[in-house]
Amino acid sequence: MGMGVSLPCNASAGLGKTSFFDEKIMAYGMLENKEHILNGNTMIEQEFLRRFLFEGVGVRGEWVNLTTSWQAAKQHQHLSTVEQQLLGQALVAVVMLSATIKFKGSMILQAQGDGTITTLVAQSTDERKMRGLVRSRGEVVAGSLESMFGQGRLVLTVDSGNAKPYQGIVPLQGEHLATVLESYFEQSEQLNTRLWLFANATHAAGLLLQELPAQDGDEADWQRIEMLANTITEAELLELDCETLLYRLFHEEKVRLFDAEAVEFECSCSRQKIEKTLRAMGKEELEDILKERGSIEVICEFCSEHYQFDKVDVETFLLAEGVNHDSATVH
Ligand SMILES: [Zn+2]
C-alpha cells in the first residue's frame, strides 16, 4: 500500500466479533489518530476495499476507492458523464455488497428500464474481480432514476453456480442508486443499511454502513453513527484515503479496521461462453448469419474482446454439442 502507516496489531482481543468476516482477514488494527497523513500529498490508498467494525455496537462498514480498475472497467465504453457516474456507483456498490456475505461466485447488480438508459450491469466476484456496462438509447439527461430508466427495476443476484441463484428485486425509484439499495436491504433483509456512492471520470468510491445481522444493536448507536457518516462529502469520499476519512467521521467511536482487499477489473468472458450463447440461438439462425456475412463476430461489451467464428468453427461447436452437453463451464 506504500503509505507507511503501521497499525497496532493487538491480535488477542475480541476476535469472536469478527466471525462474520471470511478467512481472508489476516490482521486488524484499531483506528487511531493519523494526523501525520492528513497534511496533504499523501498517496491515496486505491484499488482497495476495506472493512471496519464499530466495536461493541453491532455496526459494520466498508470503504472502497477505485481509480486504475475504474478506468479499465469503462475505457471500452463511450459513456457520458451521467452514465459514468451511474456505472461507477454501481461498481463500487456491488464490490461492497459482495463483501457483506460469504459466498463463492458472482454478485450481479442489474438495473433495467424502458427509458433512455435501458441497462446498467455491475458484477463482482467473491475475489472482488469486477466489471460492468451501461446501455442507453439517445442522450441521457441527468435526473431522477425514473427520468433516466423510465419504469424499471433493480435485480440483485448472487450466482454461486447453483441451479437456482438467489435474487432480490426492488423498483428503480428515487434520486440515487444508493437509496434503491438501502430500501432493498430494509425490505428483503430487515437490516439498517446506508450507502454513499460517488464516481467521476477518475475515481469511483463508496462507503457502506450496516447493522450486523442477528445482533440486538441499540437503535441509538445506529442513529449516532449514521449521523456522523451523513456529514461525508463527495470530495472527501473520492479523495481521502480510508484511515483519514474514518478518523474524520468517527474519531469518537471505537473502530476496528481490517486489512485491505485488492479490487481489480477482470472480464470473465471466454470463447467457450460465447459459443454457448451462440448455440442457444439455434443452428438455423447461425447459418443465416454465416450466409449473409461469411463469419460471426462477437464483441464483449464489458472488455471489447473480439471473438470471430467462421463456418468451420460454428459446425465444430454445433457438433460438439451433441457429444458433450456440459463441456462449457460457465464459472
Ligand atoms: Zn469480456
Structure explained in plain terms:
- There is one protein chain.
- The chain is an alpha+beta fold and 331 residues long.
- The chain folds into 2 domains: 15-265, Hsp33 domain, CATH 3.55.30; 271-323, HSP33 redox switch-like (CBS domain Like, Alpha-Beta Complex).
- Helices cover 31% and strands 27% of the residues.
- The protein is built from 10 helices and 15 strands.
- Strands 1, 2, 3, 9, 10, 11 and 12 form a 7-stranded antiparallel beta sheet that branches. Strands 8-7-4-5-6-13 form a 6-stranded mixed beta sheet.
- The protein is elongated.
- 33% of the residues are buried.
- Residues 1-44 and 325-331 have low confidence and may be disordered.
- Bound molecules: zinc ion.
> What is the percentage of strand-forming residues?
25-35%
Estimated radius of gyration: 22 Å
How many separate structural domains?
2
Report the mean per-residue pLDDT as an integer.
84
| Corresponding CATH superfamily of the largest domain | Hsp33 domain
Quick summary of this structure?
It is built from 10 helices and 15 strands. It has 331 residues and is an alpha+beta fold. β4 (106-113) and β5 (117-125) form a beta hairpin.
Helix/strand layout:
Elements (H helix, E strand, L loop, with lengths): L27 E3 L17 E7 L4 E8 L1 H7 L6 H18 L7 E8 L3 E9 L3 E8 L8 H5 L2 E8 L6 E6 L5 H13 L3 E7 L4 E8 L7 H11 L4 H6 L2 H9 L4 E4 L2 E2 L1 E2 L5 H11 L1 H11 L1 E5 L6 E5 H13 L8
Parallel strand pairs: 6-13
Antiparallel strand pairs: 1-11, 2-3, 2-11, 2-12, 3-10, 4-5, 4-7, 5-6, 7-8, 9-10, 14-15
The structure holds zinc ion.
The site of zinc ion has 6 residues, from loops.
